[in-house]
Amino acid sequence: MAAPKNITAMQKKIIWSIARKSLGLDGSTLYACIMEMFGAERMSALSAAQADLLILELRRKECRLGERLTPLQYKGITRRSQELGWSAKGLRRFIKNETGADELSWLTVEQARFVITGMEKIKKWRRTHREEKIDGVQ
Fold first, then answer.
1. Which helix or strand (DSSP H or E) is residue 17 part of?
2. Within 10 A of 116 (CB to CB), how many other CB atoms are there?
3. Which of 99, 61, 50 has the alpha carbon at shortest distance from 77?
4. How does pLDDT run across 67-90, given as a tens digit for each residue?
5. Nearest 5°: phi and psi at 22?
6. What is the C-alpha to C-alpha distance for residues 92 and 135, in angstroms, rounded to an integer?
C-alpha cells in the first residue's frame, strides 16, 4: 500500500491565498482551523487529501463571506462588552457558550444578532437588580 502523498507547494499557496486575501485570516487563525479540522500543528503535516479538504472548506467559507457579521454588529458587540466590563476572554467565552463560535469575527449575521440580544438582556437584568438594591427591595 502506498503512503499518502504530502501537501504540495501549490496547495499551500492556494490555502494561504484564500485565507489571507479572501477571508482575511491571520496565520494563527488559519493554524487553529487546521488543528481543529485535522489535529495537525503544521500545514506541512497534512496529506494532499487533507489539504484538498481544507481548500474546499476555505472556499465554502469564502462564498458565504456575505453572511458574516457586519462591521456595525462587530462594533456593537465590542461596545456592549466594554459596557458590561468584560475582558476579551470573557467575551469569547460568552460567544462560545451562546453560539459555539470561537471568535467574534467568525459569527454570522444571525449569530451576531443572538449575541447582541443576549448582551442587552444581561444589561437590562443588571439595571433592574441595581434599581432594586437602591430602592431597598432586596
1. helix 9-17
2. 15
3. 99
4. 778 889 999 999 999 999 999 999
5. -90, -40
6. 34
